[in-house]
Design brief:
Blueprint (H helix, E strand, L loop, with lengths): L2 E4 L2 E7 L3 H6 L13 E8 L5 E11 L2 E7 L3 H12 L5 E5 L3 E7 L11 E4 L6 E7 L7 H10 L37 H10 L21
Parallel strand pairs: 3-8
Antiparallel strand pairs: 1-7, 2-5, 2-6, 3-4, 4-5, 7-9, 8-9
């Protein structure tokens, strides 16, 4: 099974008796639908509905979660979460020196039984798993980026700037990153209106050609 070590990713832990209630009230992801062993996409939005931070979230135990995000914005993400925490009984901390590894198999039914891995639910036609902790050196980062692009999975930094895109723009509504049946969260009113009125003006599409395509930003 091919793999890649993602050196540009970081982990933030949120744990405590109020952790789930706290996160459910501010993030786009519906945590009621987050099963053990899954890593679901999501975002923390501005009140105007634009993405401040994007991430993958998974459960560690009954009262604990891991948020995998870009390493270069992890400290800012922690500070923003702290701002919203108020009196909630939840501990928030960036995990130091934890490695993120992603591996995949073209057979979408293939899966490792290791309980430390989390299925990346954004992918529909390929089995993708993320593991946190021990990792093998090397891997093929280029193959991972090619796989992500071929499946239309957009990530901030590489594909769009934070603060510029709505969840619908980058398909979070289609990849399970937005819970439309959950209660209110930051930016929920704008996202719900876009969903019900069908007013999304930008969408991620997959382009292919028989000649080299123009560079990013074209």
């Amino acid at each position: 099974m091919p793999f890649a070590l993602l050196k540009d990713r970081a982990l933030i832990s949120v744990s405590g008796p109020d952790a789930e209630h706290f996160l459910q009230n501010i993030l786009t992801t519906d945590l009621d639908a987050l099963n053990p062993g899954e890593a679901k996409p999501g975002a923390l939005l501005t009140p105007q509905g634009k993405i401040l931070f994007d991430f993958l979230i998974s459960r560690t135990d009954e009262n604990g979660f891991l948020l995998e995000c870009r390493a270069d914005v992890a400290d800012d993400f922690v500070r923003r979460l702290m701002l919203y925490r108020l009196r909630a009984k939840a501990e928030i901390a960036k995990q130091d020196q934890v490695l993120v590894t992603v591996k995949w198999n073209e057979d979408s039914t293939a899966s490792d039984s290791d309980s430390t891995t989390h299925a990346d639910t954004r992918f529909r036609n390929v089995a993708v798993q993320r593991s946190y902790g021990a990792a093998s050196d090397g891997g093929d980062a280029g193959a991972w980026q090619a796989l992500r692009i071929a499946n239309g999975i957009a990530e901030s930094g590489t594909d769009y700037p934070l603060g510029d895109a709505f969840p619908h723009d980058v398909l979070l509504d289609e990849t399970g990153g937005v819970g439309f049946r959950k209660g209110c969260y930051v930016g929920q009113e704008v996202v719900s209106r876009m969903q019900h009125r069908g007013t999304a003006r930008r969408r991620v599409l997959i382009a292919s050609a028989q000649v080299p395509l123009p560079g990013p930003g074209t």
